[in-house]
Amino acid sequence: MFEDQELINFASDNVAPVCPEIIEALRIENTGPAMGYGNDDTTREMETELSSLFECDLRAFPVATGTAANVLSLSVMTPPYGSIYCHKMAHIEGDECGAPEFYTGGAKLALLDGPDGKISADILEDALAKSGAGNVHHIQPSAISIAQVTECGTIYTPAEIAAISAVARKYNIGFHMDGARFANSVAALNCSPADITWKAGVDLLSFGATKNGAMAAEAVVFFNMEKAAEFEFRRKRGAHLFSKSRYLSAQINAYLEDGLWLELAGQANNMSQRMANGLSDILNTTPHYKVDANIIFTTLPERMIDALEKAGFLFYVMGSREVGHVRLVTSWNTTEEEVDSFLDVLKRNL
């Protein structure tokens, strides 16, 4: 279908290439020896840079994948007899192949509902009140995990996060944030990273970079540092302690330098808004969810889907082509020309 034509990516920010600044940082890093297993200056610099970014003391550990960041984080919060509360559409539920259960030794995901892929404090309060905490016959509530940005492309506000945190504190459970697209949320909210993490009560953050221009780099950031020592052993046991950790850390350092991470995320967000506005004008419809960041869910007629694919656009059809639900994701390198070209195909196939 795509033979001999240039492909244009709206499938995923994972499909996008690595940004030049990070490639250059890896080239520079790739000279001379450095101590292994995180005992190098580059990894120490990474932790210092993240501490400055979040305006607090913290511990930070590089890992290579978002799944590793999420499940290793949850493993230090949750015993095998515990439960992790999350939205029913959460990435840890639908896209991590049982890794949370595996790395916690058997903890259960307790799935919650809520509009736009988000959990409210009231929904969490109701679930925890009915959880049977302290009853030996029941799994014990141990953690709440939210995604920022959510699987629906929506964003939690600082007030929403603080309200969830208040419930978590009331029931003495940990608070984890899956920040695979954390940069997109900060860019959209135009807030301090601290405002939607530790200042709002988040204990642990999976700080993502891979979806926003890195090659393979995430950081597990501990704002509540009591569990950091345990994490080091769990990371090693889980085969995610890299001997050449400096190459992960170098990516994160370059990512943060001179605000590159927000520049990249801002470009992705802006292109998503341009796409959403164009879709609204052409189709006279609204997206399935509010377009807060760089993800759009909408419905297209099958003839438009066919025409877009024939023109070389990559995107996901979510289910039946006849129904026509599609997901469009913009990336750090998405251009106005690519968005406009996509919209032009739609116009020609009205």
Task: Give a brief rundown of this model.
This protein has 350 residues and is of the alpha/beta class. The chain has 2 domains: 8-16 and 263-348, Aspartate Aminotransferase, domain 1; 20-260, Aspartate Aminotransferase, domain 2 (3-Layer(aba) Sandwich), CATH 3.40.640. It has helices spanning 20-29, 41-54, 66-75, 91-94, 99-104, 121-129, 158-170, 182-189, 228-237, 246-256, 260-283, 302-310, 336-348, and strands at residues 8-9, 59-63, 82-87, 108-112, 140-147, 174-179, 204-208, 218-222, 295-299, 313-314, 316-317, 325-329.
Topology diagram in text:
Elements: E1 8-9, H1 20-29, H2 41-54, E2 59-63, H3 66-75, E3 82-87, H4 91-94, H5 99-104, E4 108-112, H6 121-129, E5 140-147, H7 158-170, E6 174-179, H8 182-189, E7 204-208, E8 218-222, H9 228-237, H10 246-256, H11 260-283, E9 295-299, H12 302-310, E10 313-314, E11 316-317, E12 325-329, H13 336-348
Characteristic terms for this protein:
350 residues, alpha/beta, Aspartate Aminotransferase, domain 1, Aspartate Aminotransferase, domain 2, 2 domains, seven-stranded mixed β-sheet, three-stranded antiparallel β-sheet, 16% strand
Question: Main sheet?
Answer: 7 strands, mixed
What is the global morphology? Answer: globular
What fraction of the residues are assigned to beta strands by DSSP? Answer: 15-25%
| CATH first level of the largest domain | Alpha Beta
What is the residue-averaged pLDDT? 96
Count of individual beta strands: 12
| Topology pattern, helix = H, strand = E | EHHEHEHHEHEHEHEEHHHEHEEEH
Q: Number of helical runs?
A: 13
Give the proportion of residues in helices: 40-55%
The CATH homologous superfamily of the largest domain = Type I PLP-dependent aspartate aminotransferase-like (Major domain)
From the alpha-carbon coordinates, what is the Rg to the nearest angstrom? 21 Å
Which segments are poorly predicted (pLDDT under 50) over 5 or more consecutive residues? none
Distance between the termini: 22 Å
Sheet with the most strands: spatial strand order: 2-8-7-6-5-3-4
| Classification by helices and strands | alpha/beta
Number of domains: 2
CATH topology grouping of the largest domain: Aspartate Aminotransferase, domain 2
Q: What's the architecture of the largest domain, going by CATH?
A: 3-Layer(aba) Sandwich
